[in-house]
Write a structure and sequence with these properties.
By secondary structure, this protein is an alpha/beta fold. About 30% of the residues lie in helices and about 15% in strands. The protein has 8 helices and 10 strands. The strands form 4 sheets. A 4-stranded parallel β-sheet has the order 4-5-3-6, covered by helices on one side.
């Protein structure tokens, strides 16, 4: 009954998404959160998200050091520091570099938020003791996009796929379709594509 009557559930990363207790909460429309969904709900700081199977920590740490030379920057996430642990220290001027595991990303679709800029280092089949199959693991990782700018998730933003970007039309259309199924409206008003993009054609 706790999972059917709670105000919200804070999910531990070790709890799989197919847990019967989480399913009970979902059936009763109880919000399920983790530290990152709470952070994105409360803070408007620019976030650069780094995910992938290998190399997340190295990439995020290097990026933090490079940016911190010119901008006030905070590093947190899967490096061992929850963003909520730094909540009182993060000011409006701070840029946040976030190392994001698949678990960190799992609750973001429900709040329709994502990092403003995103990096996927690579993808390998991992964590199959928690995920039912590889596609489910990849799906969480791929909530950070390949072609669409992540700002497409933020209201009032106009996103541009600019000159020189290599666009695979079927991949782009699939990203748009997946977002549409999640309730995001993508139109020519919030997504612009340069006429000087390079196209990958099927011949």
């Amino acid at each position: 009954s706790d999972f059917a009557q709670a105000d919200y559930i804070i999910r531990n990363p070790a709890v799989p998404s197919h847990s019967p207790y989480l399913q009970i909460a979902a059936q009763h429309y109880i919000p399920i959160h983790n530290d990152w969904s709470i952070f994105f709900s409360l803070y408007q700081n620019p976030v650069i998200g780094v995910t992938g199977s290998k190399g997340k920590t190295t990439t995020a740490t290097l990026l933090h050091h490079l940016l911190d030379a010119s901008y006030p920057t905070v590093l947190c996430g899967n490096v061992g520091v929850s963003p909520l642990a730094l909540a009182q220290d993060i000011l409006k001027k701070h840029m946040v570099v976030a190392e994001l595991s698949s678990y960190n990303l799992q609750q973001l679709p429900q709040i329709k938020k994502s990092p403003h800029l995103s990096i996927i280092t690579n993808l390998f089949p991992e964590h199959l003791n928690v995920y039912p199959h590889t596609d489910a693991y990849y799906k969480d990782k791929e909530y950070i996009f390949h072609l669409l700018p992540s700002a497409i998730l933020h209201k009032g933003k106009v996103c541009v796929i600019g000159n020189g970007v290599v666009v695979d039309p079927p991949a782009l259309l699939k990203e748009i379709e997946d977002l549409s199924k999640r309730g995001f409206k993508i139109t020519s008003a919030n997504l612009k594509i340069s006429g000087r993009c390079h196209m990958v054609m099927p011949y």
